[in-house]
Amino acid sequence: MHRLFISDLHLSDDSLPAEEALYYVVQREILQRESAVDSLVILGDLFEAWVGDDDDAPLANRVRDLFCSITDAGTEVLLARGNRDFMLGSAFAEQVGARLLGDETVMEVCNEPCLLMHGDTLCTDDTAYQQFREMVRDPDWQAEMMTRDLEARRELARQLREMSIDAASNKPEDIMDVNSSAVLEAMKRNGVVRLIHGHTHRPARHELPSGQERIVLGDWTDHRGWLLRERDGALSLEEFPIG
What we know:
By secondary structure, this protein is an alpha/beta fold. The chain has helices spanning 16-31, 58-72, 90-96, 127-136, 139-145, 150-169, 180-190; strands at residues 2-6, 39-43, 76-80, 99-100, 105-109, 112-117, 194-197, 204-207, 213-216, 224-231, 234-241.
């Protein structure tokens, strides 16, 4: 099994280096290799914002085309929602041949049960964010959003991003990191020995009690990106330059 796990690319019209890096990784790892990657697993925040699966912006269409080339090459694409692209839905997944993951997904990684998630639900000390998350994940709220035209949704997404940036600038760093008890509870609830997530932008491998492990994926910037590679029964967290 050869898998790649990535998250937090935050693609937007202002993130051309990260978008180009994604094309490069796909070409190098999937489209130009004889032993192609079996699965590309994206654990949230692929996009900086997603206003609905009917988005017809050039960026959305470029990513659709790229993902279709991945799945056409025989590589499975697994896609989780993040705190930025929480409006990603089944229509987008169907358009590109991907599989949409739930908030918590258990799968076998290196022959052991592993929990995959974006990671924002583990930041339980940030009560203001958790309240916001509950609101925007509500099906009625999302249904009301989809009654608006694309431009109105794009403007709301812009406003929400600005509010999020302002709120984060006034919060202590530790509040925006995962809660240790929430991590252990999630792993126990799902019966796993390993957890892989993104969201916090703090790439690392953490050894937990009883031989458990928590792996945090890194975010992609103008200068560097991160991926976690599963191959031949081993995992490697890899950093690479961008630009």
